[in-house]
Amino acid sequence: MTSFKPLIGVVALVGSLTGLPALAQMGGGSGTQMMNPTPGSPTNPQCMMCLSGSASAQWMGSTGSFHVDYIMSKQSMMSGAMDLRLVMTSTMPVWGQPFSYMNFSDAMTFNPLAPGSQYTVDSGTMNMYGNSMPPGTYYMLLYMRQQMGGMMSAADWIVFPKQVTCDGLGCSVASACMEDGNTMCMMGGRYRITSYWVDQYAGGAVSTMNKTTLKAATGAFWLSDSNAFEYFVRINTATDNGRAWITISTFTDVEFFVTVEDLVGGQSKTYHNPPYSSALIYDPTSFVYP
């Protein structure tokens, strides 16, 4: 395979920001993304050449493929030629604002569509360039352009629901958070939180704590009575310093440990409440966000 340097583009978007439903997980250097919009999910009312239906992407090393149910023309005249590829961006794209992107796959090209016509897209095996992506965490888009006035301009895009982490050698989808009686998944599964305590009043007995998720960003841990919370955990992402703020407020002076994992950013930290302390634990700097 020929060597490849990722192409970086900056475009003023004319596209749609599609909702972020469920997805997939795979290991290093490979991944699977799936997107299945629910009936009635919002679409961009301004798109004239639109990506529609469910979409997916998968890759293993330097090859992979993608699918989307439809490229649809809502134009009243013949469209321009189109291309479609997977791209990566470090920020969530916003309708009407420019953004920078890097090509993750080769492009498929399409002939112009007549008004009301559509294509169904299965790419087949294509080159993927995960080993050329700079280290970091990115949003993955299925990104379509249309030729207009001799230039290729953004037409529409789909944002896949899980971010992708690249290490300079390959890219993979972040692990999924699996919630159970002891594991709390916050902010759409981005943060996984677990806890245990060491009871100095019971000879140092170690117990895994049970959890109750109260809101998307707030939860509580308890030992034997689900109505008697021992401490709360809150994650605040509406901040002004590019960080998620972690707050742990406690009603106990028993020693405990809380582990917070960012499954998108790849960060993890364990917070410790010493025995006989009930001080507030507050960390506004450790976890990078978004």
CATH-scheme architecture of the largest domain: Sandwich
Mean pLDDT: 81
Main β-sheet description: 8 strands, antiparallel
- Oligomerization state of this entry? single chain
Rounded to the nearest angstrom, the distance between the terminal CA atoms is 34 Å
Query: SSE string, helix = H, strand = E?
Result: EEEEEEEEEEEEEEEEEEEEEEE
Given as residue ranges, the uncertain stretches (5+ residues, pLDDT < 50) are 1-28, 35-43
Q: Helix/strand/pairing class, anyone?
A: mainly beta
Outline: elongated
Work out the number of β strands: 23
Output the number of helix runs.
0
Into which percent range does the helicity of residues fall?
Answer: under 10%
In short:
This protein is mostly beta strands and 290 residues long.
